[in-house]
Amino acid sequence: MVTRAALVEAISSAVGEAAVTLRPDAVAALRAALDSEPSERGRTVLAQLLENAEIAAADRVPVCQDTGSAWIRLTLGVDQELPGDLQAVADEAVAVAYREAGLRMSMVRDALFDRTNTGDNTPAIVSVSLRPGTGAEVDVMLKGGGSDNASALAMLPPSAGAEGVRRFVLETVVAKATGACPPLVVGVAVGGTFDTVAALAKKTLLREIGSPASSAQAAGLESALLAEINATGIGPAGLGGRTTALAVHVVTAPCHIAALPVAVNLGCCAMRSAHREIA
Q: Is residue 49 situated within a structural domain?
């Protein structure tokens, strides 16, 4: 049953898990990269990332000192009674989790006029979607400032086409990858509107690394972009090598006839997210 207490517990436990563990698919991708990386320096970085993940999980300490903003994606059944103000519920859960786990508080009260720390890492960034039935699913992603700062959005003309999208993604990664702590997972969304395309790009980072794309066309674009990104030589930690990105995840959506929105949201080497379900 989706009570307030159940939702607080699901969110707070997911935050605690994400803070100290890399996703299994991210660990597997790092290990595969270590086996195939030709650069000695790149292999050293990848080995250190894997060792860091092992220590964090064993000692229950944060994988990264930037414990991020808390992005909470709630998927609710359409027949589910809401357990009150969802923003307030998420904020309560995040405050509890960050305080109990001793995580770094990173949120400020106002981006421009009051940059004092809120003291509990709230507000959480809450996204809500619906599905048939009852119950709820909770996805929590802890997003560091470096990777979010390296993301980008453009409203391209439709005439730019797939080549324009490809060029924008590649230019974004080349310009900003080193500040986002590679190897990266590159989330790409094309379509929607100005205010939705960025959320779609971030959502792609929840997809399991190595899982199939939504279509053969998207898979082809992902493969081409990954090859181009890894041919840049930026490499792990920006120190050179083949593994600039572990994966590229592409999603497309409908849009206005006059538009071609594209967003790139970079996921850093510390891919931290966790999933919970409430019946």
A: no
Helix residue ranges per DSSP H, 102-206: 145-149, 161-176, 194-203
Boundary (domain end) residue, out of 96, 114, 143: 143
Spatial CA neighbour of 22 closest among 203, 269, 204: 269
Is the CB of residue 96 less than 8 Å from the CB of residue 89? no
In a domain, 57, yes or no: no
Q: At what angle do helices 216-230 and 161-176 cross, to 10 degrees?
A: 40
Co-location of 221 and 175 in the same domain = yes
In eight-state DSSP terms, residue 210 is T
Percent of the chain with pLDDT over 90: 98
CA distance 265 to 267: 7
Residues 220 and 100 in one domain: no
Radius of gyration of the chain (CA): 19
Helix (H) or strand (E) holding 74: strand 69-77
Same domain, 85 and 132: yes
Low-confidence ranges of the chain (pLDDT < 70): none
Beta bridge partners of 250: 188
Question: Which pLDDT belongs to residue 166?
Answer: 97
Identify whether 47 is part of a domain: no
Q: Are 12 and 97 in contact (CB under 8 A)?
A: yes
Instruction: List, as one string, the DSSP characters of 35-50.
Output: HH---HHHHHHHHHHH
Asked if residue 258 and residue 178 are part of one domain, the reply reads: yes
C-alpha neighbours within 13 Å on the C-beta side of residue 231: 8
Tokens 């436990």 correspond to what residue?
Answer: 13
Q: Whole-model pTM? A: 0.95
pLDDT score at 1: 85
Pick from 7, 145, 161: which is nearest to 64 by CA? 145
